[in-house]
Amino acid sequence: MNPIFSALSTSVFEVMSQLARETGAVNLGQGFPDDPGPLDVRRKAAEAVVDGWNQYPPMMGLPELRQATATHYKHWQGLDLDPSSEIMVTSGATEAIAGALMALVSPGDEVVLFEPMYDAYVPLVRRAGGIPKFVTLRPPHFGLSEEALAAAFSPRTKVVLFNNPLNPTATIFSAADLDLLADFCIRHDAVAICDEVWEHVVFDGRRHVPVLGRPDMRERTVKISSAGKIFSLTGWKVGLVMAAPPLMKVLAKAHQYITFTTPPNLQAAVAYGLGKEDGYFEGMRADFQRSRDRFAQGLTGLGFSVLPSVGTYFLNVDIAPLGESDDVAFCRKLVMENGVAAIPVSAFYDQAAVRTVVRFCFAKRDATLDAALERLADLRRAGTAA
Ligand code: GLN
């Protein structure tokens, strides 16, 4: 057995969802919305299953989806992408990340990672033969610094794997952070693999700024997006990859031997969805923002210390003021005794874990959030009594 994978435990998302199912807890752990997603997009997929093509689609993705992707990112992010040479469809963003690492990293190459980071990153980097070099981000801002980047980059740096907006912190890197990162990539001749799956889930009037569009990054960036996140259909696993032709040629080689293609009916529905009017995307953001505010106000009212959330489906709570110092034990107790599943943020660190932050998913109906708040009120009452 390969030691990298045999040594891994089950992903924290699966563990917490399983515990939530077993105990009947309100599941605010794994990040997925209660809402079933836009009906017209789901209908397009259903129609495409019944009436459309169900054999292998083209390896790079349906031409209509690649065109829709180019049009969408021109409109929303000002990117000029050639659909025939700079866009590829994968079976989810995770496939795109795995493929990009396989395609760009050779054994012994160094890969700069920013912790807290998505739990798949480190095993995939190691399996590709890469040597992870960590930049540790700290609450409450989780921003970059010149010193931290200088300590992580070296002449052996080949790739940086960068997630913006950042899961689990619900923060967005500033334009100055992006420029600093770009500067290091250019100086070290490194490629930035940018996991931008949360790009549309940003609040308070913010607009996502893609690394691919920064000066001099056009030729050294792989942009990865996710239809699952754009349309709140997390089970669809339709990823979109954007990169300049010399990079895309090799990314395509990895994709052709990992999944080769992605279900054509879902691709057709995503092509339709990407062209939806601005109001859909703005409405989606407004709905999530309202849920964020409802849940944040509820938590604050109960005396929890809530960290700012400016994007993603997540809201973090600092448990240090509650006298807690072990987020894993806190989350276990929360799901077993209080009936609310959450995610310990230490699960997103490899080196210098922050152990006093807990992540909740607020992309839920009011009734779900209110049920969770009631249970959290019990926890607070028990805490005060103790
Ligand atoms: N992206 C989801 C989250 O952060 C988890 C996906 C998964 O379960 N692997 O909660």
Structure description:
The chain has 386 residues and is an alpha/beta fold. 44% of the residues lie in helices and 15% in strands. The protein has helices spanning 3-6, 12-23, 39-51, 63-77, 93-104, 121-127, 146-152, 175-187, 227-230, 245-258, 264-274, 278-301, 327-338, 366-385; strands spanning 26-27, 87-90, 110-115, 131-136, 157-163, 191-195, 221-226, 239-242, 305-306, 314-318, 340-341, 343-344, 357-361. Strands 2-8-7-6-5-3-4 form a 7-stranded mixed β-sheet, sandwiched between helices. The longest helix is centred in the last third of the chain and has 24 residues, at 278-301. The model has no long low-confidence stretch (mean pLDDT 96). The structure holds glutamine (GLN). The site of glutamine has 5 residues, from loops.
Task: Draw up the topology in text.
Layout: H1 3-6, H2 12-23, E1 26-27, H3 39-51, H4 63-77, E2 87-90, H5 93-104, E3 110-115, H6 121-127, E4 131-136, H7 146-152, E5 157-163, H8 175-187, E6 191-195, E7 221-226, H9 227-230, E8 239-242, H10 245-258, H11 264-274, H12 278-301, E9 305-306, E10 314-318, H13 327-338, E11 340-341, E12 343-344, E13 357-361, H14 366-385
Parallel strand pairs: 1-11, 3-4, 3-5, 5-6, 6-7
Antiparallel strand pairs: 2-8, 7-8, 9-10, 10-13, 12-13
Helix pairs in contact: 3-11, 4-11, 5-6, 5-10, 12-14
